Amino acid sequence: MSDSQKHSGPGEELPKAKVTRNKWNFPVVWVVPVLAVIVAGYLVYHRVHEFGTKITIKFRNGSGLKIGETPIKYRGVTIGEVRSVELSKDQQHVMVVARLKRSDAAMAREGSVFWIVRTEVRIGNVTGLGTIMTGPHIEALPGGGAPRTQFVGLESAPVTLELNGLKIVLLSSRLGPLKPGSPVYYRGIEVGAVQAGQLNTNAATVDIHVTIQQRYMKLVRNGSKFWNVSGMDVKIGLFHGAEINVESLRSLITGGIAFATPDDPKDEPAKDGAVFHLYDEPKKEWLEWRPEIAILPEN
Questions:
Q1: Whole-structure pTM over 0.85, yes or no?
Q2: Which of 68, 90, 163, 187 is the most exposed place for a label (fewest CB within 10 A)?
C-alpha cells in the first residue's frame, strides 16, 4: 500500500485554496465625478486667486451688461469682469460691481474713469463696431490718485483718451454746430477736441470746454486766438471767381475750431482753466503768425 493511501481516508477533508481580497473597494463609477469635482475646485480657486479688488461703478444705463461675462478692458486687455448689476436705491442709476485682476489692482485709484463701449452711429463718426458680435464691454482709463473703490461712470468715451491734456474754456455767443468730439486744429493738424458745451452761469454766453492733447499743450499761449471753422466759407470775387475754404470735411459735418499763436517769446504758456474768446473768423494777421514752438515726441 502506498503512502498516499495510508494518509487519506474517507472522512478527511481536502486542503482549501486561500483567496486574497483587494482592500480598496472604491467603485470605478465614481472616478469621473471625483475628477470633475477636483477640476471644478481648481478652477474656482484659480478665479478667486486671479481676481482681487472689488469696485463699484455707477452708470445711468446698464443695458447689455452681463454678470460674469462683460469684461473690463484697458488698451484691449481684459483687467476685470462684471460680477453684479443692480438698480440704485433711488432707482435712478445702475450699480455695477466688478472685480479687477490682482495684477491690475492699481486701476482702482482716484482719477480712473470707466465707460461702457457700445456700437454708436453718429453723423461723421461710428464707434464700437467690435461690440456688434461680442456685446458691450467696460473700458477703463487709469488715474494716479489714492486708492478708491467707488466710481461714477462716464456716459460716453472721453473725446481725447488722455487725462493729462490742457483743459481750456472758450467763450462764444452760441454753440452752433460744435459738439463733443468736434476737432481743434493748429495749422490744419488736429491737436485737440471739444469736450462739452454749456451755458455760462449768467446764460449770456456759452462755455465750450476744450482739451488740447498733451503733446501739443505748448502751442497754446495766453495770446493765442481761437476761431470757428464750422461749415463752409464761400467768397465770390468779381475777378477771382469763387473761393471755398473749409478746414476739413469732418469740421464741415461736426463743426471745428482752429487757433493761432503769436510769435512772442514773452508770451506765457496757457494753464488749465484758461479762458479765451471764440471768434467767428480769423484776422488776416493771425494767419501769418509763425512761432517756433517745440512739441513733445509721440509716445
A1: no
A2: 90
